[in-house]
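Deliverable D2.4 — example input (structure tokens):
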């Protein structure tokens, strides 16, 4: 989330607490109206423990229809929450125009994937260690060249990433905002898609435009929705149901899941100014606590996995896919 306050929309009454809500709406031959979304679930206590042996790496894009909804902040906090729950995480900063992850951490990057493409650095030399043991692959314009690399470079990239197969549980790809070619591209080669939005009409409209483009033109069907900077669970639910109603009317074979919500919290802009993640500075803040719930939700989901070699198959898609997508 960023520092913008939510609009004046109905929220929970003062002094009351409500559980994190989650639900699913599916469209298609037998459309499920938003009114029939499954009952709310609350994630229970969960101790930090490693993922079960043999589980494939989960590859999840984190996208938003428009900028300014806190996508990079949420990606970083989610990685930290997953790490706190015993998962090993790599963030791939794929926002080529506005690389934010290193800025949010106050880190100066010395090498990027462009240096790898030139043969100057190995993947391990590029990846940065962050708090709680998370890893970050910095953004670079060189990423545009990944679909044009030689067969030898493809083999090298896959071989180097394959070394991470046993060292990762989640690969979070922080895409740019909007529906540009690179955003579509990364969403096409990833397994799962998390869409960040808030309660503003432009955010909802643009998030829908992203989902529509991926569904109607590229047959992507499953999306997690995460309302950010909302007043509480009621407002998050309202945003989700609005999206569900529109998707049910105009899209086919789409599954929308409410992954939780992140409330507006003053600690977030304060942390950005300090270039330290709010999840580290204020672990008991409302925003941090809800990020942990979202992490638990994702851990508990069945992964539409590629199989045991999930990371390698993702990379094969990455280097062999067509780049330009309208």
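Example output (designed residues):
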């Amino acid at each position: 989330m960023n520092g913008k306050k939510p609009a004046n929309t109905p929220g929970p009454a003062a002094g009351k607490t409500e559980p994190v809500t989650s639900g699913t709406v599916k469209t298609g031959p037998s459309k499920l109206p938003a009114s029939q979304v499954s009952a709310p679930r609350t994630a229970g206590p969960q101790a930090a423990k490693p993922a079960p042996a043999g589980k494939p790496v989960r590859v999840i894009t984190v996208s938003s229809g428009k900028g300014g909804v806190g996508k990079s902040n949420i990606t970083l906090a989610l990685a930290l929450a997953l790490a706190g729950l015993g998962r090993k995480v790599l963030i791939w900063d794929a926002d080529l125009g506005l690389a934010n992850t290193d800025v949010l951490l106050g880190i100066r990057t010395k090498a990027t994937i462009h240096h790898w493409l030139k043969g100057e650095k190995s993947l391990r030399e590029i990846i940065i260690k962050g708090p709680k043991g998370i890893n970050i692959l910095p953004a670079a314009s060189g990423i545009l060249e990944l679909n044009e690399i030689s067969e030898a470079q493809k083999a090298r990239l896959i071989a180097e990433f394959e070394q991470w197969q046993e060292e990762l549980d989640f690969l979070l790809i922080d895409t740019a905002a909007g529906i540009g070619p690179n955003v579509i591209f990364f969403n096409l080669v990833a397994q799962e898609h998390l869409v960040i939005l808030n309660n503003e009409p432009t955010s909802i409209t643009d998030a829908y435009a992203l989902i529509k483009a991926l569904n109607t033109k590229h047959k992507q069907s499953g999306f997690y929705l995460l309302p950010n900077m909302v007043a509480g669970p009621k407002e998050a639910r309202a945003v989700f149901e609005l999206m569900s109603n529109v998707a049910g009317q105009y899209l086919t074979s789409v599954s929308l899941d409410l992954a939780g919500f992140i409330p507006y919290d003053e600690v977030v802009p304060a942390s950005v100014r300090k270039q330290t993640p709010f999840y580290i500075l204020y672990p008991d803040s409302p925003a941090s606590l809800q990020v942990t719930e979202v992490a638990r939700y994702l851990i508990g989901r069945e992964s539409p996995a590629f199989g045991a070699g999930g990371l390698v198959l993702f990379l094969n898609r990455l280097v062999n896919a067509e780049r330009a997508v309208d």
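The radius of gyration is 19 Å.
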